[in-house]
Design a protein that fits this description.
It comes from Ohtaekwangia kribbensis. The protein has 405 residues and is of the alpha+beta class. Helices cover 43% and strands 12% of the residues.
């Protein structure tokens, strides 16, 4: 692939559905995270993050989706659209498009957004069509688009998240676009491309294809600029279980240590979060990183599946009780911040800061399997659920204690 990017990513093609009990919570958490980002950084930051495949995958993991699969794209964008659009006027973020037939309704939806906001709906619709055309036709990489989402702010900035499938290789490829870095639709336009390396492909938007474009498309007058300084690469494995090689053990270990070994009273910054159990602090710390973390913090998206597990049981069942406590705490913080009371939101932000400080000199044990085993054994305590049903208590064991950290 000649597109200017740092690499490719393999997203195993998964089918199935998201159960209602999870889909509803994904929407609530996604809305709260989006509002927190807008409050702290503004609408443009939401679009920038959606154009980052590492952050997007981390968001899907912290939402409780299958940590590595193509289903993250469909489910996350569906949840965000359902949750954000009813509040679009207030937030200044509009999500259009979707999967299958819904993707073809994107131009019409953008025209309506133009009517609501005063933006040029025709121009936005053209951007939507061109981005889809480039990835589906100009880049013949064996992937047929089946999902297209166009996210636009009330200022007219936008991002595209779209995905194609290759049934022959049972993989999916996700494409990210971002208007802030776009200067031409016909040369090196992508913010990133995720997918399995398919070898040499026909790529009519590669810089090397400029002479061909000029002759075939009569675009000799075009003089496209160099597009991007950096493209982020994401490589996801096909195995369902989360392995030690999939996560940064030092980063994960420091979060688990903070949540389970230390107490909030030990940290002045966490006094406003007293009353939360260690398991909820673990989830909230990872959610805090999704909101406040810098790009370098998302190199191991699988780590974020230790917030709320996964609907397929990997790395462990979704702890519904913890999920609800996390949403409630974040929701309260966001609502108070709107009223000018930001103390609780700052306390949540401090969680990611604390984990960064803690990991500096942290030496973890390499016993990820023990951590996962403990989560699974205690899942029933937190109303753990998967698509297969509810978690049940394990059979009693003889005196056995695992040192996790």
């Amino acid at each position: 692939m000649s597109l200017r990017r740092s690499g490719t990513a393999d997203l195993p093609l998964h089918y199935g559905h998201v159960p209602r009990w999870l889909a509803e919570r994904m929407g609530r958490l996604g809305l709260a995270i989006t509002e927190a980002i807008i409050t702290e950084y503004g609408k443009a930051e939401v679009l920038r993050r959606l154009s980052d495949p590492f952050w997007f995958q981390s968001l899907g993991c912290v939402m409780g989706m299958d940590w590595h699969s193509s289903g993250i794209t469909t489910s996350v964008m569906g949840a965000l659209k359902r949750a954000i659009n009813p509040h679009a006027k207030e937030l200044g973020i509009y999500i259009c498009g979707g999967k299958g037939k819904t993707s073809r309704e994107t131009p019409a939806e953008l025209l309506k957004v133009g009517e609501y906001t005063g933006l040029d709906g025709d121009f936005l619709a053209r951007c939507s069509k061109l981005s889809a055309k480039v990835d589906n036709t100009a880049v013949q990489d064996g992937f047929q688009l089946y999902l297209h989402n166009f996210i636009v702010s009330s200022e007219g900035q936008w991002a595209v998240v779209q995905q194609g499938m290759s049934p022959m290789s049972t993989t999916a490829r996700r494409y990210h676009w971002h208007s802030a870095s776009l200067t031409s639709f016909v040369e090196e336009p992508h913010a990133s491309i995720c997918g399995e390396n398919q070898g040499n492909i026909l790529n009519m938007v590669a810089r090397e294809a400029s002479p061909t474009r000029s002759s075939l498309m009569e675009m000799a007058h075009e003089s496209p600029e160099r597009m991007l300084k950096e493209i982020r690469q994401l490589i996801m494995p096909s195995h369902h279980e989360v392995k030690a090689k999939d996560v940064d053990i030092k980063r994960l270990g420091s979060i688990l240590w903070l949540a389970h070994e230390k107490q909030p009273k030990d940290f002045e910054e966490l006094l406003l979060l007293e009353g939360l159990g260690p398991r909820t602090l673990q989830s909230l710390t990872l959610v805090s990183e999704v909101i406040y973390g810098t790009p370098s913090r998302f190199k191991d998206p699988a780590r974020f599946s230790f917030a709320h597990g996964g609907k397929d049981g990997h790395p462990f069942p979704v702890p519904v009780k913890v999920y609800d406590e996390t949403i409630a705490t974040l929701r309260t913080a966001v609502d108070k911040a709107k009223l000018g009371e930001s103390d609780k939101q700052q306390a949540i932000k401090s969680l990611s800061d604390l984990s960064i400080r803690a990991e500096k000199d942290f030496i973890p044990n390499t016993n990820l399997d023990a951590v996962i085993e403990k989560e699974r054994e205690e899942s029933w305590k937190y109303e753990g659920r998967t698509v297969f049903g509810k978690a049940v208590p394990p059979p009693p064991k003889k005196n056995q204690q695992l040192k996790l950290f």
